[in-house]
Amino acid sequence: MPNARINDSDIPEGRALDMRRYHAATARLGTASPPTPPKILAVAARSFAQRPVARQSGPRLLPLAGFIWGSRATPPQPRTRADHILIWVTAGQLHLDFPRQQHVMPSDSVRYIPAGTAFAAWPKPETEGHALLLAPALLRDIDPPFPQHPLAGSAGESGEALLSTLKELADESAKPNSEKALHCLLGVLALRLARLEPARANAALTPLPNEAQRPLVERFLTLAMAQLRHGPTIADLAAILGTSTAALDHACQNARGKRAIELMHEVRLQRAVEMLREGGQSPAQIAKELGYTSHAHFTRSFVEATGQRPETFRDQSG
């Protein structure tokens, strides 16, 4: 796949990029030189966008190596899109930034981002994968429904089935009178999203530069809450925060009178209590969601902290 990429922020909403012209353009840009500067990429993208292109209302499947979204700054800054997007990294990594969070999507990771969500995305060199664009009208009355909030996970063993569904959607969108088939395939895709494996631990969250203005302990607690399901160590979180475990422990003891690991246990327990009161998930599911090594580990920790089993606490809170 050529390294040269076309900035999708310059492609008008609702328009499809003719893939034959896309590949011809990237071939002319060449692969021997370093990645082309964003300004040149924007000019190349506009040359295509200014040509008459028929509006497409069906799904659009794009190669992830050529998908960049965001403002024209370097790096791109978050912007909203009018369509939903499914991003699947099959090789390499992709930067994915939201207004208050920065992520690096590793290989095998999947993200679903609903329309109207501000984000920026740009792949690293040699990144491969797929970007599926879906107009909101396509997802009306889909059963099961698509998520209403951003969703993260890993394709895992379902990768082959997910790829087959994406290819079928792309094929059907090119056929006339394919509304019923698309409706059925979108239902299958929604089901596959609901069954994604948990996001891998190396899909690390990194703090934005302005986060450095907040006290270290506050940043630590926010990060710990966001990363619970990945089961990070204190060393992992300290590295992301740009400090050492000793310095983090010292800050936590000064601010809260407890070590970092103790505060992290409290954050995990607090979230477990909230989820049990909500009643939408079983204790086993909550254990997996919050990064406990097993249901038994969750039960032991919860009983030690509250004197009750998670199931008993949930029943009494219902």
Structure description:
The chain has 11 helices and 10 strands. By secondary structure, it is an alpha+beta fold. A 5-stranded antiparallel sheet has the order 1-8-3-6-9, covered by helices on one side. It has a 5-stranded antiparallel sheet with strand order 2-7-4-5-10, with no helix packed on it. It is globular, with a radius of gyration of 22 Å. The chain starts with 18 loop residues before the first helix and ends with a helix.
Secondary structure elements and pairings:
Elements lengths: L18 H11 L8 H12 L10 E4 L15 E2 L3 E8 L2 E5 L2 E5 L3 E5 L4 E6 L4 E7 L16 E4 L4 H15 L5 H16 L10 E2 L9 H11 L7 H7 L4 H12 L3 H19 L4 H7 L5 H12 L3 H8 L1
Antiparallel strand pairs: 1-8, 2-7, 3-6, 3-8, 4-5, 4-7, 5-10, 6-9
Helix pairs in contact: 3-4, 5-8, 8-11, 9-10
Protein name: Helix-turn-helix transcriptional regulator
InterPro entries: Homeodomain-like_sf, HTH_AraC
Organism: Paracoccus saliphilus
Notable traits:
318 residues, five-stranded antiparallel beta sheet, 11 helices, 15% strand, 2 domains, Jelly Rolls, globular, alpha+beta
- Specify the CATH class of the largest domain: Mainly Beta
Q: What is the CATH topology of the largest domain?
A: Jelly Rolls
What is the count of DSSP helices, taking H or I runs of 4+ residues? 11
Give the strand order, joined by hyphens, for the main sheet. 1-8-3-6-9
Q: What is the radius of gyration?
A: 22 Å
The percent range for helix content is 40-55%
Number of domains: 2
How far apart lie the N and C ends?
54 Å
CATH architecture title of the largest domain: Sandwich
Count of extended strands:
10
Strand content: 15-25%
Q: In sequence order, what are the helices and strands, one letter per element?
A: HHEEEEEEEEEHHEHHHHHHH
- By secondary-structure content and strand pairing, the structural class works out as alpha+beta
- Taken from the alpha-carbon principal axes, the silhouette is globular
**Main sheet makeup:** 5 strands, antiparallel
- Write the CATH homologous superfamily of the largest domain: Regulatory protein AraC
Mean pLDDT equals 78
Poorly predicted runs are 1-55, 201-213
